[in-house]
Amino acid sequence: MRGAFLYGPRDLRFEERAAPTIIAPTDAIVRISVTCVCGSDLWPYRGLQASPEPTPMGHEYCGIVEEIGSGVRTVRAGQFVIGSFFASDNTCPHCHAGYHTSCQHREFVGGAQAPLLRVPLADGTLVATPEVPAGELNPSLLALSDVMGTGWFAAEAANVKPGATVAVVGDGAVGLLGVLSAKLKGAERIIAMSHHEARQRLAREFGATDIVTERADEGVARIKDMTNGIGVDSVLECVGTQESMMQAIRSTRPGGSVGYVGVPHGVELNGEELFFSHVHLHGGPAPVRRYLPKLIEQVWDRKINPGKVFDLTLPLEKVAEGYRAMDERRAIKTLLRP
Amino acid sequence: MRGAFLYGPRDLRFEERAAPTIIAPTDAIVRISVTCVCGSDLWPYRGLQASPEPTPMGHEYCGIVEEIGSGVRTVRAGQFVIGSFFASDNTCPHCHAGYHTSCQHREFVGGAQAPLLRVPLADGTLVATPEVPAGELNPSLLALSDVMGTGWFAAEAANVKPGATVAVVGDGAVGLLGVLSAKLKGAERIIAMSHHEARQRLAREFGATDIVTERADEGVARIKDMTNGIGVDSVLECVGTQESMMQAIRSTRPGGSVGYVGVPHGVELNGEELFFSHVHLHGGPAPVRRYLPKLIEQVWDRKINPGKVFDLTLPLEKVAEGYRAMDERRAIKTLLRP
Which end of chain B is more exposed for a tag (fewer CB within 10 A), N or C? Predict the structure, then answer.
């Protein structure tokens, strides 16, 4: 089979590799129905994050179980499943606390930009849909594998309450689904920080009431202006840079909350500034597994359509073009069909 | 009158100055019944925090209202009052949200190590006791002006729940009252991190179930050992150094909470480590004013005795010896009587 490999900055190749096989008895092999390119894939793609070369790429997936290991109990061949980018046993104390991405046995699931994927800890990681879905649900179900769960976690970590005023830093797929999540949680005012027209449109469709195009300290000043100098109750930080993180912290009212899900790259927080900001800070790799059952239900019942973030669909063999389009911000998120 | 002034590192003088007078109509003048030396006074005393020289010292106070400005409505002369180290209007949005120490009109109250003190925004800042208290309550009432409210905020910020396992980093007065606060909030296991015998004793009296004497990464390893490798639910960080902050974060289980109230000095938090730690972080200058009514009630009803942290009592004119004793860790906290 052929899959996507990163050889170096902007050197993404689609090439032959061995099909995955069961290694541990708790593994499953999934035949990918749809996969995609993640905003976080762009960090190594842009050379901003070291990775071994070549690295098999892709960590968002859904599809049909092809084969299971001898120890797998709750998942069976033929089921349509969705899993998280971190495999988790769903039984350890951290999983019980709802932090599956800190599972004591967590294992990164890489190489999903391929027709077949090995998923470790299948019982703990994969959640099956009620039946094999109609194809048109696939994009939204795929979004639950990472971006929708991550946007949802950002809103939870930012403690979004009904009636709240919320700002979202970052207009990538996660930020946009953060807007949707804030809306689902009953936020009254949702300020999307974006200077890209197509993304602003989708943000509004998902529930944004205001758009702020300014960034950094100017963005903070705009938010303060809009809130009588107070700041917002909750900020969803969905980028991961020093600038975006400080923009989030400084836009929040004392006692408010920042939920941060952009993987920090080179971020250093000054203790004294954080102390006097009086914000609550919570984030990390989203425990997507925790949210899968409920979010699958919502997609299944056509209550949410997070798959709208995919504005480019390509056959898997065009994966390199999918990266290029996102790198150049021509696409929000690329869906790939094997 | 005479009051305490810091002229430079370890140069604390008790000398003549003009008695304070009403400046704004919202001011009150309080005749100090008892005052004390704060752990945070030791930062500038040790030369670890720049301050103008000479600086009038002291920010913890209780006493009898001597005089009020023409605009003061809820406080009257003759009342026994307690206030916070930050004056607050108790009406702005940040006060309404419970973050009085981020009040839009906050003003630091300095110079309490003296017989008389000017308190700005008296209506918003001062809380009167039901009547003038019996003298033996004074130390515990004084403790509410800062250390008890700060320990309580640490426990709130660390989200201490009934049945929780809690660690407290720092065995100063705030850390010890953090132990008491965790106990009052129903924590089942309270691990005090201390290597000082007298402080360990008081920690146990306040409710500590375990003592850990190791510090930094060794302290973290001990905590992990004691919790099956999981970490604790809540950590109260009551020091403010890089070491203590990292000790707190690394001792917390994923999804757990760090409440930090030690004023950070030179603390820098690495975004990536914080992200993957999955901890909740909240802290800042404790909004002591929020807690005064309830904590006064508890002291008044003899339910708590936070004044036990005072293990040295001196006449105010011996204030320099009070600083020395705390600097050399001969005393936990020095009470001063004008």
Answer: N
Q: Are A231 and A243 in contact (CB under 8 A)?
A: no
B2-146+287-337, superfamily in CATH? Medium-chain alcohol dehydrogenases, catalytic domain (3.90.180.10)
Tokens coding A278:
């009086």
Residue numbers of A between 244 and 283 with CB closer than 8 Å to B: 245, 253-255, 260, 263-272, 274-283
At A10, the amino acid letter reads R
Q: CB distance B255–A94 less than 8 Å?
A: yes
Q: Where are the alpha helices (DSSP H) in chain B?
A: 42-45, 93-96, 122-125, 138-143, 147-157, 173-184, 197-206, 216-226, 242-251, 271-277, 288-300, 319-327
**DSSP letter (8 states) at residue B75:** -
How many CB pairs (< 8 A) connect A and B? Answer: 116
What top-level class would CATH report for the domain B149-283? alpha beta
Q: What's the pTM value of the predicted model, to 2 decimals?
A: 0.96
Residue A22: pLDDT band (50, 70, 90) is: very high
Which of B91, B228, B260, B275 best probes binding to A when mutated, by most A CB atoms within 10 angstroms? B275
B276 to chain A, minimum CA–CA distance in Å? 5
Structure ipTM over 0.90, yes or no? yes
- pLDDT, tens digit (0-9, with 9 covering 90-100), for B118-130: 999 999 999 999 9
B164 touches chain A (CB under 8 A): no
The answer to whether the CB of B58 falls within 8 A of the CB of B110 is: yes
Mean pLDDT of all residues in B255-267:
96
- The full set of domain ranges for chain A reads 2-146+287-337, 150-283
Interface contact A50, partner B, CB < 8 A? no
CA distance A270 to B266: 8
pLDDT in tens, B193-209: 998 999 999 999 999 99
| Mean per-residue pLDDT of chain B | 97
List the CATH code of the domain at A150-283: 3.40.50.720
**Segment 77-136 of chain B within 8 Å of chain A by CB:** 93-94, 97-99, 101-102, 104
